[in-house]
Specification:
Layout lengths: L1 H29 L1 E5 L13 E6 L24 E5 L7 E8 L4 E5 L2 E4 L2 E2 L22 H7 L1 E5 L4 E5 L9 H4 L2 E2 L3 E11 L12 H13 L1 H4 L7 E2 L2
């Protein structure tokens, strides 16, 4: 009798895990998507090792089935967005939306103008390089190009993105505006932030991957940034 009860308990646990796994898999595929940060282009809003939840339906991409039941709105300036890279659509990027279709966007010596008005509420943007590219120092073309951009008018059906870590971000200043169809969703929550080793998105092989997972498990409690857990992204 005791043995049957133990088998029943284990079966219940197994069924619960299977149901939970199916639910998480469905949610991750059709409603929410997880994403991790491998670079510092969005510091200090997002740090290397932050793991995000992305709302896939907020922008109303697919309004069939479950999508019709979820609230949706148009992308807004200031949203932190996950989208496919215009240079390599197989790669996902995360940046801040700066320009909407029809907006006139310009950077002058690191200062942002949208529709010919200076943007003064960029508290999220940081500049870690004291150098400023100016027209009198165009011999350093890369510096000038980084700090001066446009003016450009964002094409219809496209959006323009910049990284919050402005001096160290590869963004629309270099590869232009992003088509609407490339947008995957809005990043809205950090569900886990890990200060240890972070994958670079490349498959290192089974042995290396298992070793990496083992190191993450060992360092989970000591290297997790608990103060960033379940932090809303703004």
């Amino acid at each position: 009798m005791t043995e049957r009860r133990q088998h029943s308990v284990w079966r219940e646990y197994l069924e619960a895990l299977l149901v939970a796994g199916l639910f998480l898999g469905f949610t991750n595929s059709f409603v929410l998507k997880t994403f991790y940060i491998p670079s510092g282009s969005m510091e200090n809003t997002l740090l290397v090792g932050d793991h995000l939840i992305v709302n896939r339906y907020i922008y109303g991409g697919d309004r069939q089935g479950l999508g019709r039941l979820l609230p949706a709105r148009a992308p807004r300036r200031g949203d932190v967005v996950v989208f496919r890279s215009p240079e390599d659509p197989a790669i996902d990027l995360v940046k801040r939306l700066i320009g909407l279709p029809g907006d006139r966007v310009e950077l002058r010596q690191k200062r942002l103008l949208v529709n010919d008005h200076w943007v003064h509420d960029e508290a999220f943007a940081i500049h870690r390089d004291s150098r400023v590219g100016t027209s009198r120092a165009t011999y350093n073309y890369q510096l000038y190009r980084r700090d001066n951009f446009g003016p450009v008018t964002v094409p219809a059906g496209h959006y323009l993105f910049l990284g919050d870590n402005r001096d160290f971000s590869y963004d629309s200043r270099y590869w232009g505006a992003v088509p609407r169809r490339y947008i995957k969703g809005r990043a809205f929550l950090i569900y886990w932030s890990y200060g240890g080793e972070t994958p670079d998105g490349q498959w290192p092989g089974m042995a290396a991957k298992l070793a990496q997972l083992g190191r993450t498990a060992v360092g989970f409690f000591t290297k997790t940034r608990w103060d960033r857990t379940f932090r809303l992204i703004r």
